[in-house]
From TrEMBL, chains A, B:
A GO biological process held by the record: negative regulation of phosphate metabolic process
Main location as per UniProt: cytoplasm
Protein name: Phosphate-specific transport system accessory protein PhoU
InterPro entries, per database record: PhoU (IPR028366), PhoU-like_sf (IPR038078), PhoU_dom (IPR026022)
Subunit: Homodimer.
GO cellular component, one term: cytoplasm
Cell location: Cytoplasm
Record keywords, A-Z: Cytoplasm, Phosphate transport, Transport
Segments of skewed composition (Basic and acidic residues): 219-233
Keyword Flavoprotein in annotation: no
Pfam families assigned to the protein according to its UniProt record, in alphabetical order: PhoU
Amino acid sequence: MSELKQHIASAFDRDLEGIQAQIMKMGGLVEAAIMQSAKSLETRDEELAELVRRNDAAIDALEESLNEEAARVIALRAPTASDLRIVLSVMRMSANLERMGDLSKNIAKRTGVLVQMQAIGGTAPSLRRMAREVELMLKDALDAYIQRDEALAEDVIERDRDVDQMYNTLFREFLTFMLEDPRNITACMHLHFIAKNIERMGDHVTSIAEQVVFLTTGRKPDEPREKADRTSTDADLAPDMDKDGD
Amino acid sequence: MSELKQHIASAFDRDLEGIQAQIMKMGGLVEAAIMQSAKSLETRDEELAELVRRNDAAIDALEESLNEEAARVIALRAPTASDLRIVLSVMRMSANLERMGDLSKNIAKRTGVLVQMQAIGGTAPSLRRMAREVELMLKDALDAYIQRDEALAEDVIERDRDVDQMYNTLFREFLTFMLEDPRNITACMHLHFIAKNIERMGDHVTSIAEQVVFLTTGRKPDEPREKADRTSTDADLAPDMDKDGD
């Protein structure tokens, strides 16, 4: 490798390290947002919910600066095809994280409304467990990215089935509460959206893990995963329909 | 400009034209998907719904080939900062279109379930009108992109308020149907998701229009637009909460 080439390569590596540090920081903020939003719902803590809503601005700002930095690196370093693939993956991952931040913020907003209503059964602890699962998946997906650990990434993808299952169970529970007493409908609609938000966060983590598999193996994610639940043909519920378009 | 530079510039322009043609084709398919999904719901046409579900694969394939082509162009042509901005915008727009395709497919899936239930009031025609509005917005946003017409793009952004308003009205209507008769709950949940999907499609079109404003003026979209509806503080409804995280 000529001296000039080497110089360019290491400059790219330095830039990439900077971008990756930003992704990890963003990931940390999103992990906190997930857990705090679920906790604020369970403990009916309006102040904590308000904090989550305020903190989302920092996540958005990180995504913006990360995208600008990535565009700068592409323009300046004219990376090779495989380096370019890394930069584009990081941009996609930051979009996933940014959306997860929005979803946490949305949960916190709904918490602000729900604390004014009667609690519905034991649904808040179930939602917190579901959020905890997604947070752990995110932690592992980011570790898998930094370590380029394909097995760990595949494990994360697999675990999203549990999250889907938890969502399906909760969906049915909300329906029964609504049928039991129409006065529960409004609260249940909010709780259902919260469950759906967490389930969508699981999909975003899965997408991050799929990027890792792609980067380490060059293999594109398989055809859409089999749904953990088969209720699309169940005319009454069909909750897994919520999986599209997230 | 040296002859070599000129040669590179026109090669980039040719590449960009190819990418733009793909975006327009993708836009055409998404426009059709939006209208067909809404029509299949109104006319309870299961075959048309099935067609929308099948056609989504073509939209996904276009996004993939567009992203590959964009990455190839960036790597090969090492575009200037402003040309790079165009390519990155097109990639973002294709992500918006792909998601709109998914949302149409989701509407078509729910149609397959809803035809087995009793129709709920006059909600299907309302949903079709809402979908029609979003389809026209998309058409204009794509025209605005090709013509670099900032005024038209701003107009599209403005019209998203009407879509939000239509959604809010429908949300309240579904709630009253559910409160009136709990047997309506399941159908109303599906119809509500359909309304929400259309509302989210409006947000994606807005995001495309904002890209156009950014490309023509270099101006980033303003702070999050004012919500057309202020019910966040309304403990009973708060439908505009659904705006985050889409």
